[in-house]
Design brief:
Largest sheet: none
Shape: rod-shaped
Order of helices and strands: HH
């Protein structure tokens, strides 16, 4: 009786799946390219928007911090 480990079967199945995926990507080059381009475009857009939001937030905090230093006190008294 020959024993085959479960680990060997799972590695073989994983290798078969990766082979099928690569074959499908190679067979549909344009669709694969457009899909990868769309994913990259979406990730880039999110990074850009997050960066802009953080930049505006830090700019506003800096403005508010300097605004407090520039406020003076003025009073008007009558001279007697």
């Amino acid at each position: 009786m020959v024993r085959v480990s479960v680990h060997w079967l799972s590695m073989r199945a994983l290798r078969d799946i990766i082979g099928q995926v690569l074959d499908a990507i190679w067979a549909h080059k344009l669709r694969s390219f457009l899909t990868m381009f769309g994913i990259a475009w979406g990730v880039g857009s999110l990074l850009l928007l997050i960066g802009l939001g953080e930049g505006f937030r830090s700019g506003q905090r800096r403005e508010m911090a300097t605004l407090g230093n520039e406020i003076g006190r003025a009073s008007c008294r009558e001279r007697v």
